[in-house]
Amino acid sequence: MKIGIIGTGGVGGYFGGKLVLEGFDVTFISRGENLNALREYGLTVKSILGDFKIDRVNATDKFSVLGDVDLILICVKAWQVKDIAKKLKSFVNENTIVIPLQNGVSAIDELKEHINESNIVGGLCFIISKIESPGVINHFGVEPSIVFGEINNLKTERLNKIKSMFDMAGINSKISEDINADLWKKFITICVSGLLAVTKTTYGELRALKQTRKMMVYLLKEIYKLSQKAGVKIKSDFVDNTISLIDTYPYNSTSSLTRDVWEGKPSEIDYQNGTVVRLGHKYGVETPVNKFVYNCILPMELKARNIRNLK
Length: 311
What we know:
- The chain is α/β, with parallel strands linked by helices.
- Helices cover 44% and strands 20% of the residues.
- Helix 7 packs across helix 13 and helix 9 packs antiparallel against helix 10 (238-246).
């Protein structure tokens, strides 16, 4: 199976690197300094589960190479998916499988605007990682895993083939019973990232202080209530389980959105707390904590994107 990885950051670099180690034919789509480093020095992954280095990798900025691959993993930021979908339209054939691994619940719909639904398999991943420097990925929290499934929740042979590939590469993965529910579960959990950004705290600091922990709980409960209004099948104990999970995160860890906001970079805020606010209006669910988080970050987001009109 030939694999294309779009975005060689904390997600694409780690999972793509594991696939290369097992001998799979992987092409990385990257750009700028990261692409130059990959071409000259290869890919280095520092991981709490064990470091590894790949001296030579196939890396390019040309999407045309994807016309020859069987599986495409989209590992860019959520706000980049729309543009990626337009670029992929010319290269995806009837047998190409496309799996988006973005945060949020919008990637599938955005891909469907340009790519046939039959090409798309829903997906998400769990990993705390980042680009430490060009060509160097640092995985520093959470056991990496991928959850994926057909949009209609059918069990198909292509899912089994993908699962076998991940197993061979030592990537923890699961075929979802309900991919929409799993996407929402991840969505609910990741929206704490905006609260970290606003309070300028790590996960450990946020959960340790009574006042900010209370805000975190309210934020999670708002999105859970929204999910139920939207008809998503998630059990009633999900919020409690999510809080228990967050309590296991490394004390000094943060998320990619949090770091992007702090560093003045464009972030996924519109695809996280911003989506909560919009869907809250749609379904008539009050989301005051998420609205507070989104409104606090919005001016910084507009500046990061050089949007001068703040009306």
